[in-house]
Amino acid sequence: MSKVTRTQKPKNEQATPLRRGWTTGACATAATKSALSALFKADFIDPVTISLPKGDTPSFALAYEKHSEKSGDSFAEAGIIKDAGDDPDVTHGATIISRVEFGAKGSGITFHAGDGVGMVTKSGLPIPKGEAAINPIPRKLMTEVVETLCKAHKFAPDISITISVPGGEKIAERTWNPRLGIIGGISILGTTGVVHPFSCSAWIHSIHRGIDVSRSQNTTHVLGATGSTSETAACEIYNFEESAMLDMGDFVGGLLKYLRANPIPKITLAGGFAKFTKLAQGSMDLHSGRSQVNFDWLANIAKPYVNQNVKSQIQNANTALEALELTQESGIDLPKIIANKAQSSALETLRGAPVEVEVIIFARDGKLLARTDWKA
After folding, report:
1. DSSP assignment letter at 303
2. Reduced to 3 DSSP states, what percent helix, strand and coil does the chain have, rounded to the nearest 5?
């Protein structure tokens, strides 16, 4: 049997197309359209089709509906279960409910946070403090739906929309909303309405909003860490405020590209040896499923300092940790070399933006392995 390299798949292993999904904003828009139809004494629309910014016209089946026509308490609610496709989205399977009611004459279209939807408490986000965490594009999509239906049914567009997500407050604990100052639940997100598989667009969106919040608070030094161990270890060095920690995770590219256009004076990048080896190689997504350590490259980096036998062992290493241990046995400070190259890769991505970069590499137990000087 021939050997399969780390970047190959066996010939009989067929790639399965990944399913795309729909954002919480798209679900909220569809739920609003169906509920508003019922409020106008028509039936709930089920399935309900909406138009998204790039021309997609998905249809959604209702998972929940409720209609009250009591005098002084007329409302309609519709709920849709979010399907994120094959994207690892924490809101996958959540029920997005829209409750629509008639507002006071001249009040226009208003948005409110129901159970499980957060409230904005800090500046620097696209929604002002004191508002429901329903982002601009979902608001625009719902506004268009309301205006269209109101015109068709000859009603003034004075409609109150309340979005709820049962269990959303618990889901939000697995997001960065608390750190961003969004309290009480999740955000209703989306720019295109589409969730592309493994784009992790919600994560990158949160990184961007974290940078916005830091800039609005005039923060001059922020942290991008690949995980909790490196974040904790870096905080022991710098004692970062919570709002200065950007939850980079694997998305160093998403962080650096946004910083390029929205600079903060200093950023510390902190992570483990394997992930930062991939950054040193030029990878901007450090997830194990989307980038790999190139052991031939790593062996060439170590070549000036090791004999041919050790170089061959690095080339055939099973993990980055094994390669690291091989060089440690030879007295080679490979983490320092990787840290410097990772810093260079980060600076290349920043393209001269006024941001100083420091790279710190930690072991899995939080022990400091390498640290660069500051460089811009």
Report:
1. G
2. 35, 20, 45
**Domains of the chain with CATH codes:** 21-195 (3.30.2110.10), 219-371 (no CATH)
The amino acid occupying position 303 is K
* pLDDT tens, residue order, the chain (376 aa): 222 222 333 333 344 567 889 999 999 999 999 999 999 988 999 999 999 998 999 999 999 999 988 766 799 999 999 999 887 789 999 999 999 999 999 999 999 999 999 999 988 888 999 999 999 999 999 999 999 999 999 999 999 999 999 999 999 998 889 888 899 999 999 888 988 776 677 788 889 999 999 999 999 999 999 998 999 999 999 999 988 999 899 999 999 999 999 999 999 999 999 999 999 999 999 987 788 999 999 999 988 888 899 899 999 988 888 899 888 888 889 999 999 999 999 999 999 999 999 999 999 889 999 999 999 9
Instruction: Calculate helix-pair angle for 334-350, 320-329, nearest 10 degrees.
Output: 130
Q: Kindly list the distances between the CA atom of residue 3 and the CA atoms of 10, 11, 314, 321, in Å, as whole numbers in the listed order.
A: 9, 12, 17, 22
Those residues whose C-beta lies under 8 Å from the C-beta of residue 200, and which sit 6 or more positions away, are: 87, 88, 89, 250, 251
Residue 23 CB partners (closer than 8 Å, separation 6+)? 138, 189, 190, 192, 193, 194, 195
CA angle (51, 55, 60) in 5-degree steps: 40
Residue 188, CA atoms < 13 Å, CB-side half-sphere: 37
Contact 356, 343 (CB under 8 A): no
Three-state SS at 248: coil
DSSP string for 147-198: HHHHHHHT--S-EEEEEE-TTHHHHHTTSSHHHHTEESEE-B--SSSEE-TT
CB 359 within 8 A of CB 343: yes
H-type helices in 40-176, by residue range? Answer: 136-153, 168-172
Name the residue among 360, 149, 357 with its Cα closest to residue 263: 357
> What separation in angstroms does the CA of 372 have from each of 343, 344, 376?
8, 10, 12
Phi, psi angle pair for 160, to nearest 5° = -95, 125
Which residue type does 35 have? A
